[in-house]
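Sample pair:
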Amino acid sequence: MTKHIERGAYFKIKKPRWNWDRIGGLGEVKEKLEEMVTLPLKHPESFRKGNLSTPRGVLLWGPPGGGKTVLAEAAAYHAGCSYIMVKAIEIMSEPDEITVMYETAAELAPCVIFINEVDALAPRRDVESKWVEGITRDAPVRIAPESITDILYKALDDVGKNVITIGGTYRPDVLDKQILTKGRLDRKLYVPAPDFDDRLEIFQKQLKKTPIASDVSLEEFAKRTEYYVGADIRGVVREATAIAIREKGHDFDLVERKHFEQAMKRIPPYLSPEAAEKYEETYKEECEHCSLF
């Protein structure tokens, strides 16, 4: 029986909803991403007048749950352009869809394409690096054969100037260096785990419309959530609020300190100290990477 696949079934064309204001912390990353993606797509004539090249691709790398997906979407939102997102481990099931995706992006241009876990589509094949495995909770187990990686590289090489690809990975150790060559994902941005100020800002943004009791100190919880990534903190806020509603029912009025305490017991930090240290070490080794025009 012939398999019938609807064109575009393996990627999503989305209306961007995330913006910079909704994303807590990461000020430097947002600023650089705006320069690399948002402004070139929003003001291409100004870039030409200023003799600045428009990046063809950007790699966002850092711990899982750190905000890479929403950062890519926000970059497209502020550019006012089309946005396509895809999970690498899904589209490799139908490799012809990679070509379809880039053809679609060209039709929708200006357009941002975000490829999540891009290392699965473009893996290193000459080493078996395992430094992330065992110190984060998940890792892609499928990798694309070389024939599929070649399809991706051809699409990246042939794509028009008004399409920018953003790849996201938390496993820079297994990413093929060829994808980082000029004209592909040659701009690299590290998305670190949030520091104290970032964590405090994430708590504040997540609780902006949520009533909290006077015994809740966001500064204290920001200090206590070292090794929590943004997704963890958002989870703590949701869990604490749900616990309070479950306890009080129709009488719900405030989220109290005890509810946050219970939530933190249920939601541990994503990162281990060892993983956090490894990411920082990798960043220091990559501190000379190309993040400029």
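Residues 110 and 162 are 5 Å apart (CA to CA).
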